[in-house]
Amino acid sequence: MTTAPPRSEQLADPAAALRAAGLRVTAPRVATLEVVAAHPHTDAETIAGAVRSCLGAVSRQTVYDVLHALTDAELLRRVSVGSRSMLYEIHEHDNHHHLICRHCGRLEDVPCVVGHAPCLHPEQDHGFDIEIADVVYRVVCSDCRARKESAA
Ligand SMILES: [Zn+2]
Ligand SMILES: [Zn+2]
Ligand SMILES: [Zn+2]
Questions:
Q1: Beta sheet of 42-43, edge-to-edge order
Q2: Which ligand is nearest to the CA of 99?
Q3: Tens-place pLDDT, residues 103-112
Q4: Surrounding residues of ion ligand 1, Cβ less than 5 A
Q5: 4 Cβ contact partners less than 8 Å away, ≥ 6 residues apart
Q6: b vs e for 109-145, b when ≥16 Cβ sit within 10 Å of the residue's Cβ?
Q7: How many angstroms does the Cα of residue 139 sit away from the middle of ligand 1?
């Protein structure tokens, strides 16, 4: 278990969250945390655009470096749902999983039934230390299902 601050605290005070993680407080880091908190499951390109529209002259590379630093510090969690780019969200240390609609791409968080990582263990681990099982549920969302039913 971890002592990382809960999401609400990071939303309220990104500077405090950075300091608690032992990171220097910089404008791009604060802006990146604010953007991701407001728009979870966002790709790096979109985050870079939003940070630049708040701060002006920030290079894309700077935002990418910030994303790496914040992910390493576990303030951000990088999520792969099989789309072309990785998505970022505030790291809540809850090992939650994702539902993604295979028609419209709508993405929702779902709690992990087990609650801690790894929540699945392979029968054969080849002697490796299993750290996490990333679970992505491929779904047809309720809207897409309704659309399909009304078209039929
Ligand atoms: Zn859908
Ligand atoms: Zn999520
Ligand atoms: Zn799980």
A1: 42-43, 87-90, 76-79
A2: 2
A3: 999 999 999 9
A4: 101, 103-104, 106, 141, 144
A5: 20, 21, 74, 75, 91, 93
A6: eeebeeeeebeeeeeeeeeeeeeeeeeeeebebeebe
A7: 8
Ligand nearest to the CA of 137: 3
CB 77 within 8 A of CB 58: no
Question: How many angstroms separate the alpha carbon of residue 78 from the centre of ligand 3?
Answer: 16
150 Cα–ligand 2 center, Å: 30
Amino acid (1-letter code) at residue 86: M
Q: How many CB atoms lie within 10 A of CB 17?
A: 26
Task: Read off the pLDDT of residues 73-118 as tens digits, 9 standing for 90 and up.
Answer: 999 999 998 878 899 999 998 999 999 999 999 999 999 999 899 9
Q: Which residues contact 129 (CB under 8 A, 6 or more apart)?
A: none
